[in-house]
Structures are given as structure tokens and as C-alpha cells.
């Protein structure tokens, strides 16, 4: 792979970035010591070796003359993996707290644009044992699902499978490179359908946009350029227990947990609960299994009102379940949440000059980003050290102060909360509220199940 044109949505993410508003996503992974002893020794070299073997990590963005305003992914001939993989030594006694704080500070720094847009940090404490790895990838390089597929190459299990596995060549039927009349007709029909969907999405965005004051000023504060990271661990069995009683999906329950946590957090802050909102943007991947590495971002999204004003936890789950059912019935390519699809219909030059202006429009459509990132179901390790926890991190939309990302691994749901450090200095309290909310939902559902059993 020597060069590849950036897809329109990738180009939009590239141009949305500014010095005080980075557009990278990330993950913070905690590893335990090797069985039999040993921790971070040799891990930095191993990270560098495996990262250097991932082809996408050698690609950087270069402007092109044609198409006007476009850019390509080009192989960096002077690629040096040591410029991307760095060692951070921490000295305090609270290793987890120090790692989380350091990760927040490292997420503040934009990636250097002349280099392949990614970084890895090995974070280790003063004692031999566990360690953490922070991965940063520019959103132009990958969406959440693609980021996992790319970054998973650092783990022992994935690296070993790629090194020893063989791919069966797929037969390619002969065809002419010249498009025939039927192909041209199909392309034209597809383009007309795409434009029709884009027009419908655009109309939905206009109808859904709000010009009223922000739902909560703390969530839509002016960006300070600072970042704070909060983490929470939820038990997947508890989530499934709630789902079995309340109905819906595990993701519906997790959205209700976020809504309830915001309610608790606002009460503790002394904030007044509004009658409606906030609105969450819930990304949906349009990536098909087996799509090629160069497929770019494949995203749409749903808009969901989080019922923060609803006092009944079970009613909050039901409200979100109904809203998500309506979204799914309409499909991910319709409705105001599918705003990412509009990027694919704009010319490249529009992204170059229009993205910085359009970036501030996010707050009139939604208040908070809530996303789920799928992980491999198998257990993972790095250099023989088992992966204990992994927290995904989503970028903040311009003019917004909170993004919530979740992933399931080893029977747990790991929540990574990324916030503007100045706007949400009490992010740890919000993270704790997610655990409290799930416990409350579990207790309420347990009581409801007991009542149903007594009624029988």
C-alpha cells in the first residue's frame, strides 16, 4: 500500500481538528504481572516491534492537487516507530490514579500532523508488576471498530495468529476495467439513492437542531483544551440481570445507566433537572465484516433523548428502549443522527474550508456522545502479561465537554469518560455515579422480579 485517497468523512475528521481541539480517540489498557513474576520488562521493545509491523501505522496524510482539497494516505518512507512509542515512568503509590491522570494529560496533546497520526505510551510504576498502555489514534485513521482491528495487533494472541496464519487466496473473476452500460447505470442509480438519503438526513438535521440555551452549560462549555479521564467498571452479569427483567438490549441498559448517573451527578451539584434531555449521539458502525483495511470511517448514529428527569429507574430503561427501537426500525441511514452520512456527499474542498466552521454546530444537535466499542471475546495478553481492564476513549465534539465510551471484556463493562478538564473537574463523581446507578437498577429489578414471582 503506497497511497490511498482519504474518504470524505475521514477528511472531515482531519480538518475538524485544531490545536486546542484534538480529534483522536484512544484506549487505556491495564495489564497484570506475568504468571510467575515479571512486569513491564521488554514491553516497550515489544510494543515498538509489533506496532512497526502494522501497515496502517506507517501511513501519513499528504495533500494532493487532484481532487481539489483532497488528501491521501501515503507510506512514510522515513517512518521511525520510536517517535511514536514512548516510555512514561510514574513514581507515586497510587498507580491507577496516576495512570488515569497522566492519560488525561496525554490525551490533551494533538498528534503531530506530519507523522503517521498515532502514539503509544507505556506507563509503569516504581515497582515491578502491572503496567498500562495508552493508545492514541486519529479519528481520520479509524473509527472505533476499525481502531480495535488495527490496534489489536499489539496483543500476543493477535500477533501470533497473524504471524503463523495463512490466508487463502480468493479467486477473482476476470473483468474489464472499462465500465459497461449496465455498470454505469447501476452507479448512477446508486448515486441518486445516496443523494436522496443525504437530502432526507439534511432535512432531519434541520428539524432536530435547537437554537435554545444549552441543556446544561457544563456539558456545552467553551473548550479549554484540557482533558480529564474518568473510569468505571460495571459487572456484565448485573447489566444482563437488569436486561432480563426490563427488556431491551444490554446497550439500552447501559444508556439508562448513563442517564441515571447524570441525574445523580446533577442532584449532587445542585443543578435543576430540565423537563427534557439531554440528547445523546449514539454512533452506529456501517462497517461490514471483512471490509478492507482502507475502507475508512464507516459511521452513522442515532439520536436518543436520555430521560434524566424521569425519577423511576425502570421507566428510564423503558424510555430508552422505545427510542432505540424507533431508531432501529428507521435504520442507521435515516434521521438526524445520520449526520455523518452528509460528509460523504460533500466535495473535498468543502471539508478543507468548511469543517472548522461546521465543527461548532454539534451542540445544536446533541449534548453528549455515548458509544459502545466491541472487543474480541477471547482473553488477551501483552508479552505474557494478562490484560485486566481496557477503557475506550472517544474524542470530544467541538463545544461539548463529555464523551462516554464503553467496552465489554472478561465479564466486565469498562467505561471511559473523557471530559474537558475545566468544565467537569468533578468527573470522578460522575464515574462513581454510573456504578451507583447500576446497583440501584439491579436492586429495583430484583424487587420487581420478586413481586412477579409472588404474583404467580
TrEMBL record:
Q: What is this protein called?
A: Diacylglycerol O-acyltransferase
Q: Which family does it belong to?
A: Belongs to the long-chain O-acyltransferase family.
User: Which domain of life, per UniProt?
Assistant: Bacteria
Which keywords annotate this record? Acyltransferase, Glycerol metabolism, Lipid biosynthesis, Lipid metabolism, Transferase
User: What Pfam families does the record tag this protein with?
Assistant: WS_DGAT_C, WS_DGAT_cat
Task: Check the record and name the InterPro entries matching this protein.
Answer: Acyl_transf_WS/DGAT, O-acyltransferase_WSD1-like, O-acyltransferase_WSD1_C, O-acyltransferase_WSD1_N
Biochemical pathway: Lipid metabolism; Glycerolipid metabolism; triacylglycerol biosynthesis
Report whether Glycoprotein shows up as a keyword of the record. Answer: no
Domain O-acyltransferase WSD1-like N-terminal: start-end pairs: 6-253
Q: What is its EC number?
A: 2.3.1.20
Q: What class of enzyme is it?
A: transferase
> Among its keywords, does the record have Signal?
no
Tell me where in this chain the O-acyltransferase WSD1 C-terminal domain is found.
296-441
Q: Which reaction does it catalyse?
A: an acyl-CoA + a 1,2-diacyl-sn-glycerol = a triacyl-sn-glycerol + CoA
Amino acid at each position: 500500500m503506497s497511497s490511498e485517497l482519504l474518504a470524505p468523512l475521514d477528511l472531515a475528521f482531519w480538518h475538524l481538528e485544531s490545536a486546542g481541539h484534538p480529534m483522536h480517540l484512544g484506549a487505556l489498557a491495564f495489564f497484570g504481572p506475568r504468571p510467575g513474576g515479571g512486569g513491564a520488562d521488554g514491553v516497550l521493545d515489544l510494543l515498538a516491534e509489533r506496532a512497526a509491523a502494522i501497515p496502517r501505522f506507517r501511513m501519513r496524510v499528504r495533500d494532493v492537487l487532484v481532487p481539489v482539497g483532497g488528501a491521501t494516505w501515503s507510506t512514510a518512507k522515513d517512518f521511525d516507530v520510536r517517535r511514536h512509542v514512548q516510555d512514561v515512568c510514574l513514581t507515586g503509590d497510587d498507580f491507577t490514579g496516576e495512570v488515569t491522570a497522566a492519560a488525561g494529560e496525554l490525551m490533551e496533546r494533538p498528534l503531530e500532523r506530519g507523522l503517521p497520526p498515532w502514539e503509544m505510551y507505556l506507563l509503569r510504576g516504581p515497582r515491578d508488576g502491572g503496567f498500562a498502555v495508552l493508545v492514541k489514534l486519529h479519528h481520520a485513521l479509524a473509527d472505533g471498530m476499525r481502531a480495535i482491528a488495527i490496534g489489536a495487533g499489539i496483543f500476543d494472541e493477535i500477533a501470533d495468529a497473524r504471524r503463523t496464519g495463512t490466508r487463502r487466496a480468493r479467486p477473482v473473476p476476470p473483468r474489464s476495467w472499462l465500465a459497461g452500460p449496465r455498470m454505469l447505470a447501476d452507479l448512477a442509480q446508486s448515486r441518486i439513492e445516496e443523494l436522496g438519503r443525504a437530502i432526507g438526513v439534511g432535512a432531519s438535521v434541520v428539524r432536530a437542531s435547537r437554537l435554545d440555551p444549552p441543556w446544561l452549560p457544563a456539558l456545552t462549555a467553551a473548550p479549554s483544551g484540557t482533558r480529564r479521564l474518568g473510569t468505571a467498571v460495571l459487572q456484565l452479569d448485573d447489566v444482563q440481570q437488569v436486561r432480563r427483567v426490563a427488556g431491551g438490549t444490554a446497550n439500552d441498559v447501559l444508556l439508562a445507566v448513563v442517564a441515571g448517573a447524570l441525574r445523580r451527578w446533577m442532584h449532587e451539584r445542585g443543578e435543576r433537572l430540565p423537563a427534557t434531555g439531554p440528547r445523546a449521539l449514539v454512533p452506529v458502525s456501517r462497517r461490514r465484516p471483512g471490509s478492507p483495511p482502507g475502507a475508512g470511517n464507516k459511521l452513522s448514529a442515532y439520536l436518543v433523548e436520555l430521560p434524566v428527569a424521569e425519577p423511576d429507574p425502570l421507566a428510564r430503561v423503558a424510555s430508552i428502549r422505545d427510542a432505540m427501537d424507533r431508531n432501529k426500525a428507521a435504520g442507521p441511514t435515516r434521521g438526524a443522527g445520520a449526520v455523518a452520512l452528509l460528509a460523504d456527499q460533500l466535495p473535498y474542498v468543502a471539508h478543507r474550508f468548511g469543517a472548522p466552521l461546521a465543527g461548532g454546530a454539534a451542540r445544536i444537535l446533541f449534548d453528549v456522545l455515548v458509544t459502545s466499542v466491541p472487543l474480541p471475546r477471547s482473553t488477551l495478553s501483552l508479552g505474557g502479561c494478562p490484560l485486566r481492564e481496557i477503557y475506550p476513549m472517544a474524542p470530544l465534539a467541538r463545544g461539548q465537554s463529555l464523551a462516554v465510551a464503553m467496552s465489554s471484556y472478561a465479564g466486565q463493562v469498562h467505561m471511559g469518560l473523557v471530559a474537558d478538564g475545566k468544565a467537569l473537574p468533578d468527573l470522578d463523581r460522575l464515574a462513581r455515579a454510573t456504578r451507583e446507578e447500576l446497583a440501584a437498577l439491579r436492586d429495583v429489578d430484583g424487587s420487581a422480579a420478586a413481586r412477579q414471582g409472588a404474583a404467580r
